[in-house]
Structures are given as C-alpha cells and as structure tokens.
UniProtKB/TrEMBL annotation:
One of the protein's GO biological processes: intracellular protein transport
GO cellular component: endosome
Subcellular location: Endosome
Keywords, alphabetical: Endosome
Family label: Belongs to the VPS26 family.
Pfam families membership: Vps26 (PF03643)
Name assigned to this protein: Vacuolar protein sorting-associated protein 26C
The keyword Cell cycle belongs to this UniProt entry's keyword annotation: no
TM ranges: none
Gene3D superfamilies with a match to the protein in the record: 2.60.40.640
Length: 298
C-alpha cells in the first residue's frame, strides 16, 4: 500500500524572517485508505559546527564535530490517530517563526565548517508492521534588515611587485602595474560587488584575470582557535588572454544565495568573506590581491 507524503510551503521562494508565520500544507496521496497513529510536524533550526584539521588534527576532525547549537525547536500534532482517505489529502499548517530563551535566528548559510539550516519535518506514524513515513523540507531564513544606511566607500588599489606579500625573491618577479577600484567593500548582500580594473603595464603577457570569492570560517569556543579556514565559494573569469593596456575591465560579482550570509561573529563561530583579484601570467606566475568584505542586509 503506497502512500506519498510531501510538505508544500505557500511561499515559492521559501524565504521567511523572524516573527513571520511559516505556512503551507501537508499533502498525502494514497490509492486506499491508510491507518495511522498520528501525524506530527516539527520545526528545527540548527547551527552545525565541524572542527577543521588545523585545530584538532586530521584524524580527530574526521569524526569530531562540535555539539550543534539549537536555535529553534517546536512540534505540533497535525492530526490524531485515524485514517487517511483514498486520493489526495491536504492538511494546512501554520508555524510562528519565533525563538525561545532570547536566542537569535541567524541567516541560513551552507558552509564547509559552519552550517545554519532550518527544516520542517513531517512524521506519519504507522501501525506496528508498517514503516513510519517522514518528509523533510528546508526553508530559508533571512535576518532582519539593518536600519542604518550603508555608505559605500570606494577602495582604489594598485598592484605592483612592491605591493606583493609572501614573496621570497622579489627580484625574480616580472614588472607589472595594475590599477583598479572596488565600489565598496562594505557590501549589501542583495547587490553585486562592482568596480573596474586596468592593466597599465606588464612585462610578461597575461593569461587570465579572475575574481575569487572566499568564505573564512572560524570554529571553537569563544573563537579562540587560530584555525581560520578559507575556502573558495566561486571563481569568475573577468578577462582572458593578454588584455589591452589601459582598458577598463568591469568587475561584477553577484553574491550566491545560501553560500553567503551577512558577516557573522558569535562566541562560538565566525563567518567572514573576502574577495581575491587573481592575475595569472603566461609564465604561470600568480598575482593575488586580497580585500576583506563586510556583508550586510538592508
């Protein structure tokens, strides 16, 4: 006897803010009437933290994850024990998105060492010999917008052999001069990162120019650990080949949904972001300029 169980939210984008009501329907489809011992719906918000090998070693990191931080947890009984009639049955539900114990709802974020996720779970309890059914549905939480206005301050930069860091033999570097501008490093997450870049001079032909968006995650009690783990989110090529000198190359990068969130700092973890301007020369020299970003939602 086959029964399909599904959770459908009223909002197509599945985005909610604290204080709003998460509403939708539980959909069950079956050919014959199905006996059950109750239908339950739960809402849960968790911050999952994973220690990196930098802080605890490779072996320990394989199985050691920090205890998850519970942001929200509530359960309701949608239907008492009985029968589901044949055909399609829809049961509406409403869940207020409120925290308890003065906890804060952080924005949904899918990272490598930090994961902030909100889910609905529906359980259909079946008689002894039949298997219980369950269905999970993730919804997205956006933090409350900042009331203060964000004043974008342009950042001008100039990249030369003298500005390079972590270089062992500076004398072996080819001569080059790259100038550019980021329109802001204090960014609104719903708006693109923009600016421009000009290659003024380069002794060695250029192979590629790329924009690399990086997340920097820090886990550990009171964030004391020095294990800042930087991982790439996305890499966009903005120029290919030996570009014309003095030509303004536009910088334009959209912040990807779920993989970015407003910059976050708590006692247990931090989520920060950076952007790298990467210039690859034909002789495979890699020139990188790093810019810390602060993301916010307005």
């Amino acid at each position: 006897m086959s029964v399909t169980l599904d959770i459908r939210l009223k909002r197509a984008n599945k985005v909610y803010r604290e204080g709003e009501v998460v509403s939708g329907v539980i959909v069950m489809v079956c050919k014959e009437a199905v006996q059950h011992h109750g239908i339950f719906l739960g809402m849960e918000g968790l911050v999952s933290l994973q220690l990196s090998s930098k802080s605890v070693g490779v072996f320990e990191a394989f199985y050691n994850s920090v205890k998850p931080i519970q942001l929200i947890s509530s359960n309701i009984e949608v239907a008492k024990a009985g029968k589901v009639p044949p055909g399609k049955t829809e049961i509406p539900f409403e869940f207020p998105l409120n925290t308890k114990s003065n906890k804060v709802l952080y924005e949904t974020y899918h990272g490598v060492f930090v994961n902030i996720q909100y889910t609905l779970r529906c359980d259909l309890k079946r008689p002894l010999l039949a298997k219980d059914l369950s269905k999970n549905c993730e919804f997205i939480v956006h933090c409350q917008p900042q009331k203060a206005k964000v004043n974008p301050t342009p950042v001008n930069f100039s990249i030369t052999p003298d500005t390079m860091q972590n270089v062992r033999e500076r004398s072996t570097l080819p001569k080059f001069l790259v100038r550019g501008r980021l329109d802001a490093t204090n960014c609104v997450i719903s708006q693109p990162l923009s600016g421009e870049l000009k290659v003024e001079a380069s002794d060695v032909p250029i192979k590629s120019i790329e924009l690399q968006l990086v997340r920097v995650e820090t886990c550990g009690e009171l964030c004391r650990s020095n294990a800042r783990d930087a991982t790439e989110i996305q890499n966009i090529q903005i120029a290919e080949g030996d570009v014309c000198r003095g030509l303004a190359i536009p910088i334009y990068m959209v912040f990807p949904r779920l993989f970015t969130c407003p910059t976050l700092e708590t006692t247990n973890f931090k989520v920060e972001f950076e952007v790298n301007v990467v210039i690859v020369l034909q002789d495979d020299h890699l020139i990188t300029e790093n810019f810390p970003l602060k993301l916010c939602r307005v």
